[in-house]
Design a protein that fits this description.
By secondary structure, this protein is α/β, with parallel strands linked by helices. Helices cover 36% and strands 21% of the residues. β5, α5 and β6 form a beta-alpha-beta unit.
C-alpha cells in the first residue's frame, strides 16, 4: 500500500509528510488550483525529503510543452494528469515520466479508457468528479469496476481510508482536503493518522 499526500504547498509540509511515512508528495501546477505551487518550491521540497519519496507533478489541461518544462524545472519523479487527454498526449508524457492518469467513475468501462490504460508507464487513479472537494466516492458501487493496480483518491481521510482500502483494494491512496488544517496547510496529526490507517487496512 503506497500513500500519497497531495496539495503540498511548502517545504515544511513536504518534510512533515515524509517524516510521517508518505511514499509520495503531490505538487499542483494547475493554475486553477488554490494549492498552486511554483516549480521552485517543489524542487526545494524534493531536495529536503530526499530521493526515496516520490514527487508527483499534478496538471490539468495543460499543453505538452508546459507539462514537460514544468516537470523538469520542479525535478518531479512522476506526473499526474487530469482532464480529457488524447492517447498520443499520454504516450508522449509517459516517454519521460511515469504517469498517474486520473479517471472519474463515469470513465470506467469505456473503450477509450481501456486504450489509455494499455499504454506503458500509465497507471490509473480514480478520483471524485470534483477533485479536492473532499467528497468520497461510493466505493461499494465501484466494486468490480475498479481497475486492477489502480490508485484511489476522492474525499479520503483518516476516518474513512481503511474502509475504502478494504472494499476496493487499491495499490495506493491519495488525499488532500481532509489532511488540512486550513487551505493548503497540512495538519500533522491528520497526515500521520491517514498514513497509519491506510497501511493498517
Amino acid at each position: 500500500m503506497r500513500v500519497k499526500v497531495c496539495g503540498t504547498t511548502s517545504v515544511h509540509d513536504a518534510v512533515l509528510a515524509a517524516e510521517a511515512g508518505a511514499d509520495a508528495l503531490g505538487f499542483i501546477f494547475a493554475p486553477v488550483s488554490k494549492r498552486l505551487v511554483t516549480p521552485e518550491v517543489a524542487r526545494e521540497a524534493g531536495l529536503n525529503v530526499g530521493p526515496v519519496v516520490a514527487r508527483v507533478g499534478v496538471f490539468l489541461g495543460q499543453g505538452l510543452d508546459e507539462v514537460l518544462r514544468t516537470a523538469e524545472a520542479a525535478r518531479v519523479s512522476a506526473v499526474q494528469l487530469h482532464g480529457p487527454l488524447a492517447p498520443l498526449y499520454l504516450k508522449a508524457v509517459a516517454a519521460y515520466y511515469p504517469v498517474l492518469r486520473v479517471l472519474r467513475p463515469a470513465d470506467l468501462g469505456r473503450e477509450a479508457t481501456a486504450e489509455e490504460l494499455g499504454l506503458p508507464g500509465v497507471t490509473p487513479m480514480l478520483d471524485a468528479p470534483q477533485p479536492g472537494g473532499g467528497q468520497p466516492l461510493d466505493w461499494a458501487a465501484l466494486r468490480g469496476l475498479f481497475p486492477a493496480g489502480g490508485w484511489l483518491a476522492g474525499g479520503l481521510g483518516p476516518e474513512n481510508v481503511a474502509e475504502a482500502v478494504r472494499i476496493l483494494k487499491p495499490a495506493g491512496v491519495d488525499a488532500v482536503t481532509r489532511l488540512e488544517a486550513a487551505g493548503g496547510i497540512k495538519d500533522a496529526e491528520r497526515v500521520r493518522a491517514f498514513i497509519q490507517a491506510a497501511r493498517g487496512a
